[in-house]
């Protein structure tokens, strides 16, 4: 996973769960003592899984809940970093419709080690977007967290429904 994710994970832990000592303790509990994560490198996905599992044991929250909190937390920084690829006139559904082309596609082109999920996104009507998520990582919490973060940013009223879980995880976002 892209180092920006680990950089953000550290920021998330330190700002929400108690500072640098908490991060160091989590790394130790994850078997990753003193490991440094740089935003321009990539690291095994298993590091993220280990850190979130240790965080779950320490907080009593599920990994899915922590993924969701983390996903929501990273949106403002992701949007700032990639603002050049986000059109000013876009509203929420325009943004979602363009994640693959404008954002994850750019991440893939600019960071050879990064493999953001291939999202299949359809604007089925002016008021509705359907997102299909089929990443091997199965980070449903991150998916929902990022989505909530983006919704919060655009301040538009929508309903999010999980339409199917298998064979493909499919979400519907509808304006009301
Ligand atoms: C400005 C907006 C966004 C940026 C810059 C961004 C960038 C990234 C980056 C850098 C990663 C890590 C990929 C890797 O290390 O291989 C990632 C992962 C991910 N992104 Fe995005 N993303 C954005 C918006 C979204 C949105 C709106 C969604 C879905 C609603 C989404 C869903 C995910 C998920 C679920 C992952 C976790 C990895 C996986 O499941 O395979 N992202 N994104």
Overview of the structural elements:
- The chain has helices at residues 3-16, 19-29, 45-59, 63-81, 92-97, 99-110, 140-154; strands at 119-125, 128-133, 158-164, 169-175.
- The protein has 176 residues and is of the alpha+beta class.
- Strand 3 (158-164) and strand 4 form a beta hairpin.
- Helix 1 (3-16) packs across helix 4 (63-81).
- The longest helix has 19 residues, at 63-81.
- It starts with a helix and ends with a strand.
- The protein binds protoporphyrin IX containing FE (HEM).
- Protoporphyrin IX containing FE (HEM) binds at residues 1-2, 4-5, 78-79, 82, 99, 103-104, 107, 114-117, 131, 135, 137, 139, 142-143, 146-147, 150.
- Protoporphyrin IX containing FE binds next to helix 1, helix 4, helix 6 and helix 7.
Write down the overall geometry: globular
> How far is the N terminus from the C terminus?
35 Å
Proportion of residues in helical segments: 40-55%
Count of distinct structural domains: 2
The name of the CATH superfamily of the largest domain reads H-NOX domain
Query: Helix and strand string, N-terminal first?
Result: HHHHHHEEHEE
Instruction: Examine the coordinates and then state which fold CATH places here, giving the name of the CATH topology of the largest domain.
Output: H-NOX domain
Mean pLDDT: 96
Question: Which cofactors or ions or other ligands sit in this model?
Answer: protoporphyrin IX containing FE
Helical region count?
7
Secondary structure category: alpha+beta
Quaternary form = single chain
User: For the report, how would you describe the main beta sheet?
Assistant: 4 strands, antiparallel
Radius of gyration: 16 Å
């Amino acid at each position: 996973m892209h180092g920006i994710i680990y950089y953000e994970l550290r920021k998330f832990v330190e700002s929400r769960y108690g500072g640098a000592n908490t991060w160091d303790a989590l790394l130790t509990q994850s078997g990753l003592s003193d490991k440094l994560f740089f935003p321009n490198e990539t690291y095994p996905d298993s590091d993220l899984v280990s850190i979130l599992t240790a965080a779950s044991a320490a907080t009593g929250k599920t990994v899915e809940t922590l993924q969701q909190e983390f996903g929501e937390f990273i949106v403002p920084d992701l949007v700032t970093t990639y603002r050049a690829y986000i059109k000013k006139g876009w509203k929420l559904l325009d943004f979602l419709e363009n994640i693959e082309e404008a954002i994850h596609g750019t991440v893939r082109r600019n960071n050879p080690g990064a493999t953001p999920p291939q999202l299949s996104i359809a604007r089925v009507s002016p008021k509705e977007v359907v997102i299909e998520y089929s990443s091997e990582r199965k980070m449903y919490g991150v998916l929902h967290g990022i989505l909530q973060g983006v919704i919060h940013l655009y301040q538009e009223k929508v309903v999010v429904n999980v339409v199917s879980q298998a064979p493909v995880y499919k979400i519907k976002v509808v304006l009301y």
